[in-house]
Amino acid sequence: MTAVEEARTIDLGEERRLREDLAAAFRWSAHLDLHEGVANHFSVAVDPAGERFLINPRGMYFGRARASRLAMMDTGRLDEDPIAHDVDPTAWVLHGHLHARVPRARCVLHTHMPYATALACLDGFEFLMLDQNACRFHDRIAYDRDYAGLALDPDEGQRVASMFEPGRDILFLGNHGVIVIGPSIAEAFDDLYYLERAAKLQVLALSTGRELSLVDDATAALARQQWMSYPQGSELHFQAIREALDAAGDDYAS
Protein backbone atom coordinates (compact mmCIF):
# COMPACT_ATOMS: atom_id res chain seq x y z
CA MET A 1 0.00 0.00 0.00
CA THR A 2 1.39 3.40 -0.99
CA ALA A 3 1.50 6.36 1.39
CA VAL A 4 -1.33 8.00 -0.56
CA GLU A 5 -3.48 4.88 -0.35
CA GLU A 6 -2.77 4.54 3.36
CA ALA A 7 -3.78 8.18 3.95
CA ARG A 8 -7.12 7.49 2.27
CA THR A 9 -7.79 4.21 4.06
CA ILE A 10 -10.83 4.24 6.33
CA ASP A 11 -10.80 2.20 9.53
CA LEU A 12 -14.31 0.74 9.65
CA GLY A 13 -14.41 0.68 13.45
CA GLU A 14 -13.37 4.33 13.58
CA GLU A 15 -15.92 5.21 10.89
CA ARG A 16 -18.66 3.60 12.98
CA ARG A 17 -17.64 5.58 16.07
CA LEU A 18 -17.58 8.82 14.06
CA ARG A 19 -21.01 8.08 12.59
CA GLU A 20 -22.47 7.57 16.05
CA ASP A 21 -20.76 10.66 17.49
CA LEU A 22 -21.88 12.88 14.62
CA ALA A 23 -25.45 11.58 14.86
CA ALA A 24 -25.37 12.33 18.60
CA ALA A 25 -24.17 15.88 17.86
CA PHE A 26 -27.10 16.38 15.50
CA ARG A 27 -29.63 15.05 18.03
CA TRP A 28 -28.29 17.17 20.89
CA SER A 29 -28.16 20.28 18.70
CA ALA A 30 -31.86 19.77 17.95
CA HIS A 31 -32.49 19.33 21.69
CA LEU A 32 -30.75 22.67 22.36
CA ASP A 33 -32.44 24.41 19.39
CA LEU A 34 -29.13 25.24 17.73
CA HIS A 35 -30.35 24.22 14.28
CA GLU A 36 -32.67 25.72 11.66
CA GLY A 37 -35.04 23.54 9.65
CA VAL A 38 -32.92 21.25 7.47
CA ALA A 39 -30.57 24.05 6.40
CA ASN A 40 -27.56 23.55 8.70
CA HIS A 41 -24.80 20.96 8.34
CA PHE A 42 -22.18 19.07 10.36
CA SER A 43 -19.35 17.03 8.87
CA VAL A 44 -16.35 14.99 10.02
CA ALA A 45 -13.33 13.59 8.15
CA VAL A 46 -12.97 9.80 8.32
CA ASP A 47 -9.62 9.11 6.65
CA PRO A 48 -6.16 10.33 7.76
CA ALA A 49 -5.84 12.55 4.66
CA GLY A 50 -9.10 14.31 5.50
CA GLU A 51 -10.35 13.78 1.94
CA ARG A 52 -13.45 11.74 2.76
CA PHE A 53 -16.00 12.98 5.22
CA LEU A 54 -19.43 12.20 6.64
CA ILE A 55 -22.18 14.81 6.39
CA ASN A 56 -25.94 14.98 6.86
CA PRO A 57 -27.86 14.08 3.69
CA ARG A 58 -30.12 16.58 1.98
CA GLY A 59 -33.34 17.27 3.88
CA MET A 60 -32.38 15.47 7.10
CA TYR A 61 -33.85 17.04 10.24
CA PHE A 62 -31.25 17.15 13.03
CA GLY A 63 -33.66 15.56 15.47
CA ARG A 64 -34.01 12.50 13.23
CA ALA A 65 -30.32 11.93 12.49
CA ARG A 66 -29.06 8.36 12.58
CA ALA A 67 -25.54 7.02 12.14
CA SER A 68 -26.52 4.84 9.19
CA ARG A 69 -28.13 7.72 7.28
CA LEU A 70 -25.07 9.97 7.06
CA ALA A 71 -23.64 10.51 3.59
CA MET A 72 -19.99 9.82 2.70
CA MET A 73 -18.37 12.48 0.52
CA ASP A 74 -15.00 12.92 -1.18
CA THR A 75 -13.19 16.25 -1.65
CA GLY A 76 -11.92 14.96 -4.98
CA ARG A 77 -15.45 15.06 -6.39
CA LEU A 78 -16.36 18.68 -5.71
CA ASP A 79 -16.98 19.30 -9.40
CA GLU A 80 -19.84 16.78 -9.46
CA ASP A 81 -23.55 17.45 -8.93
CA PRO A 82 -24.30 17.43 -5.17
CA ILE A 83 -27.96 16.54 -5.70
CA ALA A 84 -26.85 13.28 -7.34
CA HIS A 85 -25.06 12.47 -4.09
CA ASP A 86 -28.07 13.46 -1.94
CA VAL A 87 -26.17 16.39 -0.39
CA ASP A 88 -27.31 20.01 -0.14
CA PRO A 89 -25.43 22.25 -2.63
CA THR A 90 -24.41 24.82 0.01
CA ALA A 91 -23.05 22.04 2.25
CA TRP A 92 -21.14 20.64 -0.71
CA VAL A 93 -19.48 24.02 -1.32
CA LEU A 94 -18.71 25.05 2.27
CA HIS A 95 -17.84 21.73 3.88
CA GLY A 96 -16.14 20.30 0.81
CA HIS A 97 -13.74 23.22 0.48
CA LEU A 98 -13.07 23.42 4.20
CA HIS A 99 -12.11 19.75 4.40
CA ALA A 100 -10.04 20.10 1.22
CA ARG A 101 -8.21 23.31 2.16
CA VAL A 102 -8.01 23.40 5.97
CA PRO A 103 -6.30 20.20 7.19
CA ARG A 104 -6.98 20.89 10.88
CA ALA A 105 -10.72 21.07 10.15
CA ARG A 106 -11.40 17.42 10.92
CA CYS A 107 -14.88 18.40 12.10
CA VAL A 108 -16.89 21.30 10.63
CA LEU A 109 -20.08 22.56 12.30
CA HIS A 110 -22.20 25.19 10.56
CA THR A 111 -25.33 26.56 12.22
CA HIS A 112 -27.64 29.54 12.26
CA MET A 113 -27.98 29.27 16.06
CA PRO A 114 -29.96 32.30 17.22
CA TYR A 115 -27.78 34.24 19.64
CA ALA A 116 -24.47 33.92 17.79
CA THR A 117 -26.26 34.74 14.52
CA ALA A 118 -27.87 37.79 16.12
CA LEU A 119 -24.41 39.08 16.99
CA ALA A 120 -23.20 38.31 13.45
CA CYS A 121 -25.90 40.68 12.20
CA LEU A 122 -24.65 43.68 14.19
CA ASP A 123 -22.67 46.18 12.12
CA GLY A 124 -18.94 45.83 12.80
CA PHE A 125 -19.52 43.65 15.87
CA GLU A 126 -16.64 41.79 17.49
CA PHE A 127 -17.15 39.20 20.18
CA LEU A 128 -16.92 40.76 23.62
CA MET A 129 -14.71 39.38 26.37
CA LEU A 130 -17.66 39.69 28.72
CA ASP A 131 -17.57 36.49 30.77
CA GLN A 132 -15.55 33.34 31.36
CA ASN A 133 -17.18 31.49 28.48
CA ALA A 134 -16.41 34.33 26.07
CA CYS A 135 -12.75 34.29 27.10
CA ARG A 136 -12.52 30.78 25.69
CA PHE A 137 -12.67 32.40 22.24
CA HIS A 138 -10.13 35.14 22.82
CA ASP A 139 -8.22 35.74 19.57
CA ARG A 140 -9.76 32.65 17.94
CA ILE A 141 -12.57 34.28 15.92
CA ALA A 142 -12.48 35.45 12.29
CA TYR A 143 -15.17 37.68 10.78
CA ASP A 144 -16.66 37.51 7.30
CA ARG A 145 -18.49 40.79 6.72
CA ASP A 146 -19.15 40.27 3.01
CA TYR A 147 -22.43 38.36 2.82
CA ALA A 148 -23.18 37.66 -0.85
CA GLY A 149 -26.13 35.24 -0.77
CA LEU A 150 -26.22 31.45 -0.57
CA ALA A 151 -22.89 29.61 -0.84
CA LEU A 152 -23.50 27.95 -4.21
CA ASP A 153 -20.35 29.01 -6.08
CA PRO A 154 -17.10 27.06 -5.55
CA ASP A 155 -15.28 30.40 -5.36
CA GLU A 156 -17.33 31.18 -2.26
CA GLY A 157 -16.23 27.92 -0.65
CA GLN A 158 -12.61 28.76 -1.37
CA ARG A 159 -13.05 32.31 -0.01
CA VAL A 160 -14.62 31.10 3.24
CA ALA A 161 -11.94 28.44 3.70
CA SER A 162 -9.22 31.08 3.28
CA MET A 163 -10.55 32.94 6.33
CA PHE A 164 -9.54 30.12 8.69
CA GLU A 165 -6.02 31.37 9.19
CA PRO A 166 -3.83 29.62 11.80
CA GLY A 167 -5.34 30.02 15.26
CA ARG A 168 -8.79 30.94 13.93
CA ASP A 169 -11.27 28.14 14.65
CA ILE A 170 -14.53 30.12 14.62
CA LEU A 171 -15.93 32.19 11.77
CA PHE A 172 -18.77 34.66 12.20
CA LEU A 173 -20.55 34.85 8.86
CA GLY A 174 -22.09 38.32 8.64
CA ASN A 175 -25.89 38.26 8.22
CA HIS A 176 -25.74 34.47 8.09
CA GLY A 177 -24.48 32.33 10.99
CA VAL A 178 -21.30 30.71 12.31
CA ILE A 179 -18.84 27.95 11.42
CA VAL A 180 -16.80 26.13 14.04
CA ILE A 181 -13.95 23.78 13.13
CA GLY A 182 -12.03 21.39 15.36
CA PRO A 183 -9.76 18.35 15.48
CA SER A 184 -12.61 16.12 16.72
CA ILE A 185 -16.39 16.09 17.04
CA ALA A 186 -16.16 16.46 20.81
CA GLU A 187 -13.87 19.49 20.67
CA ALA A 188 -15.79 21.25 17.89
CA PHE A 189 -19.15 20.62 19.57
CA ASP A 190 -17.85 21.85 22.92
CA ASP A 191 -16.80 25.10 21.23
CA LEU A 192 -20.16 25.39 19.47
CA TYR A 193 -22.03 24.92 22.73
CA TYR A 194 -20.02 27.46 24.71
CA LEU A 195 -20.04 29.93 21.83
CA GLU A 196 -23.82 30.04 21.86
CA ARG A 197 -23.90 30.26 25.67
CA ALA A 198 -21.52 33.22 25.60
CA ALA A 199 -23.44 34.82 22.72
CA LYS A 200 -26.72 34.53 24.62
CA LEU A 201 -25.19 36.27 27.62
CA GLN A 202 -23.89 39.06 25.38
CA VAL A 203 -27.30 39.61 23.78
CA LEU A 204 -28.90 39.74 27.25
CA ALA A 205 -26.26 42.11 28.62
CA LEU A 206 -26.44 44.40 25.59
CA SER A 207 -30.23 44.51 25.88
CA THR A 208 -30.00 46.16 29.32
CA GLY A 209 -28.46 49.28 27.84
CA ARG A 210 -26.11 49.45 30.82
CA GLU A 211 -22.34 49.91 30.56
CA LEU A 212 -20.59 46.56 30.19
CA SER A 213 -17.75 45.36 32.42
CA LEU A 214 -15.30 43.67 30.04
CA VAL A 215 -12.46 41.33 30.92
CA ASP A 216 -9.08 42.88 30.11
CA ASP A 217 -7.05 41.40 27.26
CA ALA A 218 -4.35 39.77 29.41
CA THR A 219 -6.86 38.06 31.68
CA ALA A 220 -8.94 36.93 28.70
CA ALA A 221 -5.81 35.40 27.15
CA LEU A 222 -5.03 33.59 30.41
CA ALA A 223 -8.58 32.25 30.69
CA ARG A 224 -8.43 31.03 27.11
CA GLN A 225 -5.21 29.15 27.85
CA GLN A 226 -6.81 27.62 30.93
CA TRP A 227 -9.88 26.60 28.95
CA MET A 228 -7.78 24.99 26.21
CA SER A 229 -5.66 22.98 28.65
CA TYR A 230 -8.53 21.90 30.91
CA PRO A 231 -8.22 18.09 31.27
CA GLN A 232 -10.63 16.17 29.02
CA GLY A 233 -13.29 18.87 29.23
CA SER A 234 -14.72 18.39 25.73
CA GLU A 235 -14.49 14.59 25.85
CA LEU A 236 -16.35 14.40 29.18
CA HIS A 237 -19.00 16.81 27.90
CA PHE A 238 -19.62 14.75 24.78
CA GLN A 239 -19.60 11.48 26.70
CA ALA A 240 -22.31 12.92 28.96
CA ILE A 241 -24.35 13.87 25.89
CA ARG A 242 -24.21 10.33 24.52
CA GLU A 243 -25.09 8.92 27.94
CA ALA A 244 -28.13 11.23 28.15
CA LEU A 245 -29.29 10.16 24.68
CA ASP A 246 -28.75 6.49 25.49
CA ALA A 247 -30.66 6.81 28.78
CA ALA A 248 -33.58 8.33 26.87
CA GLY A 249 -33.64 5.39 24.45
CA ASP A 250 -32.65 7.57 21.50
CA ASP A 251 -31.93 5.70 18.25
CA TYR A 252 -29.20 8.03 16.97
CA ALA A 253 -26.64 5.18 16.87
CA SER A 254 -28.75 2.97 14.61
Structure notes:
The protein is an alpha+beta fold and 254 residues long. 43% of the residues lie in helices and 13% in strands. The protein is globular, with a radius of gyration of 18 Å.
Compact overview of the structure:
The chain is of the alpha+beta class and 254 residues long. It contains 9 helices and 7 strands.
Order of helices and strands: HHEEEHEHHEHEEHHH
Distance between the termini: 32 Å
Name the shape in a single word.
globular
Radius of gyration: 18 Å
Q: Helicity level, as a percent range?
A: 40-55%
Q: What can be said about the biggest beta sheet? A: 7 strands, mixed
- Structural domain tally: 1
Q: Classify the fold: give the CATH topology.
A: L-fuculose-1-phosphate Aldolase
Could you tell me the mean pLDDT? Answer: 94
Multimerization status? single chain
Q: What topology, given as strand order, has the largest sheet?
A: 3-2-1-4-7-6-5
Number of helices: 9
State the low-pLDDT regions, or none: none
Features:
single chain; 254 residues; alpha+beta; L-fuculose-1-phosphate Aldolase; seven-stranded mixed beta sheet
Blueprint of the fold:
Layout: H1 3-8, H2 12-31, E1 41-45, E2 52-55, E3 71-74, H3 89-101, E4 107-111, H4 114-120, H5 132-135, E5 141-144, H6 154-162, E6 170-173, E7 177-182, H7 185-207, H8 217-228, H9 233-247
Parallel strand pairs: 5-6
Antiparallel strand pairs: 1-2, 1-4, 2-3, 4-7, 6-7
